[in-house]
TrEMBL record:
Similarity annotation: Belongs to the SIMIBI class G3E GTPase family. HypB/HupM subfamily.
Domain of life, per lineage: Bacteria
GO BP, one annotated term: protein maturation
InterPro entries with a match to the protein in the record: CobW/HypB/UreG_nucleotide-bd, Hyd_mat_HypB, P-loop_NTPase
Domain CobW/HypB/UreG nucleotide-binding: residue ranges: 33-194
Stated name of the protein: CobW/HypB/UreG nucleotide-binding domain-containing protein
Keyword Zinc carried by entry: yes
Keywords recorded for this protein, A-Z: GTP-binding, Hydrolase, Metal-binding, Nickel, Nucleotide-binding, Zinc
Protein's UniProt keywords contain RNA-binding: no
Transmembrane domains' residue ranges: none
Family annotation (CDD domains): HypB (cd05390)
Origin organism lineage: Bacteria, Pseudomonadati, Acidobacteriota, Thermoanaerobaculia, Thermoanaerobaculales
Record GO terms (molecular function): GTP binding; GTPase activity; nickel cation binding; zinc ion binding
Length: 220
């Protein structure tokens, strides 16, 4: 093993241990944890705003937001009157489990039903880093083009749920939604695919129902 590969293996092992500690904690607290991964501009924060609005009053939620710089996305969540904590990576293209541990200690969210982790906008780096989540969700917007699943196969193969966002643009932008769904099913036959639009509300009920069912299953 080359020195570079050895260092990477050590980093991933340290992350694995931290992620397992987080997973144990979340299991004890009976908190569902969802790791949202996508390219920049796919609509993660907009999806969260619409999701949290629908879950408000029924479930206690909070958001950890990862970005290289600024607290703009966390501020958008806070404007809804909901707790959010911004993790600034200072250049790193993903969050890691130790950052999540540190953020939780500082955030002081208290008891939660669902914790959303909005990862740094990137389809590659976050894929390898377990954050102790129950499942990964990958977002792909219609404005990004319909070739992405086969170009970035790892995240589409590992994510339990694929959300096709901004579907209100179907027929406006050139995007073959059926071809994309075939690509995703080739990579991940057991994953779930949902078409959603935070703008029109299409698919949002099914998405929120998925979250509620996952929470019930975790607490069973």
């Amino acid at each position: 093993m080359s020195p570079t590969a050895d260092v990477r293996a050590q980093i991933l092992e340290a992350n694995r241990q931290a992620a397992e500690a987080l997973r144990t904690r979340f299991l004890q607290e009976k908190t569902l944890v969802v790791n949202l991964i996508s390219s920049p501009g796919s609509g993660k924060t907009t999806l969260l705003e619409a999701t949290l609005a629908r879950l408000s009053g029924k479930l206690k939620t909070a958001v950890l937001v990862g970005d290289i710089a600024t607290e703009r996305d966390a501020d958008r969540i806070r404007k809804l009157g909901l707790p959010a904590y911004q993790i600034l990576t200072g250049g790193a293209c993903h969050l890691d489990a130790r950052q999540v541990q540190g953020a939780l200690e500082k955030a002081g969210f208290g008891a939660l039903d669902i914790l959303f982790i909005e990862n740094v906008g990137n389809l590659i780096c976050p894929t390898s880093y377990d954050l102790g989540e129950d499942f990964k969700v990958v977002l792909l917007s219609l404005t990004e083009g319909d070739d992405k699943p086969f170009k970035y196969p790892a995240i589409f193969a590992r994510a339990s749920v694929a959300l096709l966002t901004k579907v209100d643009l179907l027929g406006i932008v050139d995007f073959d939604v059926e071809a994309v769904e075939r690509q995703i099913r080739t990579l991940n036959p057991h994953g779930e695919i949902l078409r959603v639009s935070a703008k029109t509300g299409e698919g949002m009920e099914a998405w929120c129902r998925k979250l509620e069912h996952a929470l019930v299953a975790k607490r069973a």
